[in-house]
Amino acid sequence: MDLSRRAFLKTAAVGALAATSLTPRPALAREAKARLPEALGILYDATVCIGCKACMAACKEYNYLPPDFSTPDSVWDNPLDLSAKTYNIVKLYRDGKAEVKDREVNGYSFIRRFCLHCVDPSCVSACPVSALTKDFTTGVVRYNKSACIGCRYCQVACPYNIPKFQWDSAFPEIKKCQLCDHRIAKGGYSACCEFCPNGASIFGNVRDLLKEAKRRLSLKAGEEAIYPVHRVDSADHRTHTVTPYIPHIYGAREGGGTQVLMLANVPFEKLGLPQLPDESGASHSETLMHYLYKGMIGPYVVLGGLFYLVYKNTTKQDLP
Amino acid sequence: MSEESVPLGGKVVTKPFLVLLFLAQVGAVLILYRYFFGLGAVTNLSDGYPWGIWITYDVLVGTALGCGGYAMALLVYIMNRWEYHPLVRSAVLTSVFGYTLAGLAIFIDIGRYWNGYHLFLPWYVNFNSVLVEVALCIAAYVVVLWLEMAPTILEGYPHSQKARIRRAKLERWLPVIVALGILLPTMHQSSLGALMIIAGHKLSPLWQTQLLPLLFLISAIIMGFAVVVFESLLSSIAFKRPFDTKLLAKIAGVMVWFVAGYLVLRLADLTVRGQLGLIFAGNVNSVMFLLETFCFLAPALLLAPAACRQDRARLFTAAGLLLLAGSLYRFNAYLVGYNPGPGWRYFPALPEILITVGIVAFELMAYLYFVKRYPVLHRGEHA
Question: What is the least distance, in Å, from the CA of B119 to any CA of chain A?
Answer without folding.
Answer: 6
